[in-house]
Amino acid sequence: MTLKTTSVSDFPDAFADKRAETGVGYMDDQQDPVDMLLRLKDVRKAAHSAATFQSGAAPGRIVIPSEVAIRDTRQIPFEVDPPEHKSYRDLLNPWFKRPLDESYQQKLQAIIDDIIDSALKTDSLDVVSEFALPLQSKALTLLLNTSMDKAQTWIDWGTHVFRSDDSDLDGDKANILYDYIDAEIDKAMVSPGEDLYSVLLASEVDGKKMTKEEVKGVMILTFAGGRDTVINAITNSIAYFSENASDLQRLHDEPEIVNRAVEELIRYFAPLTQMGRVATQDTVVCEHAVKADSRISLCWASANRDEKTFEEPNKVDFDRKVNPHVSFGFSTHNCLGATHARQILRQLVVSLADKVGQLDTIDADENVERLGEFSRKVGFNRLQARFTAK
């Protein structure tokens, strides 16, 4: 679907009516139905109730669309419940907090500056494939502490490692990632370095050395979990600034608001629509019966527009005082890569404000998710835009 340039930053709330009526939606997913929780209160409560709504079901089952058919490796710590989850999380948190280090931020800034400078030298470019994808891939080299030349391989994979143009679940494409990770782990076993593969192989959890399968589970999550979500966040933010130049100028004039602005962009665009859980017992949500071993979804995108919490939820407001968004999840299983994603966006929007005088969208093709009774715009397949220097 091709859009007019007057509406690229408009991301309608697909769930408003159902959220107000019942608080629960429904979708089928490969004959494994999903009850979608739409209200912020219910989403947070279910996310916090790991004993009732588990993450440690069959590998791939809590992802929507389900990945049960394409993998049997458990993503760690994402698909592990307490108390084991905490042991993995305690090991991984220091590594994934490294984007807060000044030296890390300096390297990230060099990547961002290079990509923006290249954009300013072209007449126009596709923000998805020529800006956001390279930025996400090159930034990932910092997170993994590996060489920058690896990024081109990841760029060649495209915007999603499990999906292709004609399929929401592409097993052949997924195997490219799995084989790649297996090969990188094998290299690290033979010749350890300072990269994440090597660090994990040398680590212990609860007194036991991590297995190759556990390391693979962490790496699959690291590659897949922060790929199209970060790409969406970058692309959608640029689309917003192309139609709201005053907010970009404001970030230049008031850089102290950057954290608030980034949180608001993340709330509004919610780059990941939902994540599943599996009920461990019969229960009730919003007077709706949920049977044991059935799936629910924590619909982050709906919860982020809940009018009972957010004043004018369909408006981007950099002065929003109350912003308990759940774009990075909530409670035990909040996103491991949230620090990395936030840091990319913080440095990116400040750099855009400093370097870019005007952003013009030329053409756009929406990426619309079909979610049972709902259709939700999550980003773009293509966003052709022109960057003009200050």
TrEMBL record:
Q: Which Pfam families match?
A: p450
Q: Which domain of life is it from?
A: Bacteria
Q: Which InterPro entries match?
A: Cyt_P450, Cyt_P450_B, Cyt_P450_sf
Task: List the GO molecular function terms.
Answer: heme binding; iron ion binding; monooxygenase activity; oxidoreductase activity, acting on paired donors, with incorporation or reduction of molecular oxygen
The UniProt family comment states: Belongs to the cytochrome P450 family.
PANTHER family xrefs:
P450, PUTATIVE (EUROFUNG)-RELATED (PTHR46696:SF6)
Q: What is the protein name stated in its UniProt record?
A: Cytochrome P450
Q: Species lineage, top-down?
A: Bacteria, Pseudomonadati, Pseudomonadota, Gammaproteobacteria, Alteromonadales
